[in-house]
Each structure stands twice: as structure tokens, then as C-alpha cells.
Design goal:
Layout lengths: L1 H21 L4 E8 L2 E8 L6 H11 L5 H11 L7 H8 L1 E8 L3 E9 L1
Antiparallel strand pairs: 1-2, 2-4, 3-4
Length: about 110
């Protein structure tokens, strides 16, 4: 159980790294456990993604969770993801939404079941 949650926490770290590379300098990372599910909210009020970057990020993250593939690639990558980290995040977690606006900044919501 804790190993599954650790993967979600590591995945959120990859998303924080992505936001920093895109220029974010004020990032909140919030975790909440509810009924055996770890919910993660990553928010950067100072980063607004372009429509193209937002679309690209959604394509890489939001798709049906493929646990077996996620576990396989997680093992191969060994925590060192080069170029495909967002696809690994999308496979290892259930990404619920990716939004970016001038009012709210960029917000990513995901969860991982135990």
C-alpha cells in the first residue's frame, strides 16, 4: 500500500519539476488520503501555460490508467525518467484534470488507489 502511494508522490515530484522547467516559481503540492486513495493537487498560481503547451500536457497525462505498463516502465526507469516522465506519470496515476488560466494559474489533479 505505501509503495503505491510513494509512486504517486514521486509522480507529483515529476510534475513539479515540469512546472519549474516551464517557469513556475511558486508551487503548492497538496496530498490528501481519502478511502484508500491518495489525492494530489499541484498548483502554480504564477504559471499560465499556452494553449499549445496545455494541450500537449493533457495528451501526455490524461488517458486511461494502465497499471501494468506503468509498473513496467517505473521499474525500467528506476526513478530516472528522461523525456518520457510525463507518460510514466500518466500511466502510474489517474490524472483527473489539467487546467491553466490567468486567474488560477496551472492546476493538476491526480489520484492513485492503493
Amino acid at each position: 500500500m505505501k509503495g503505491q502511494w510513494a509512486k504517486a508522490i514521486h509522480a507529483s515530484g515529476e510534475l513539479v519539476a515540469y512546472l519549474i522547467r516551464r517557469g513556475a516559481r511558486d508551487i503548492d503540492n497538496h496530498y490528501r488520503f481519502l478511502d484508500g486513495v491518495l489525492h494530489v493537487e499541484i498548483r502554480s498560481k504564477d504559471l499560465v501555460l499556452s494553449d499549445e503547451d496545455l494541450s500537449r500536457l493533457r495528451r501526455r497525462l490524461i488517458h486511461p490508467q494502465q497499471r501494468e505498463i506503468g509498473e513496467y516502465y517505473w521499474g525500467l526507469a528506476g526513478g530516472e525518467h528522461k523525456g518520457t516522465e510525463l507518460e510514466v506519470v500518466g500511466n502510474a496515476t489517474e490524472v483527473l484534470s489539467v487546467e491553466s488560466s490567468p486567474d488560477e494559474g496551472t492546476v493538476i489533479l491526480l489520484r492513485r488507489r492503493d
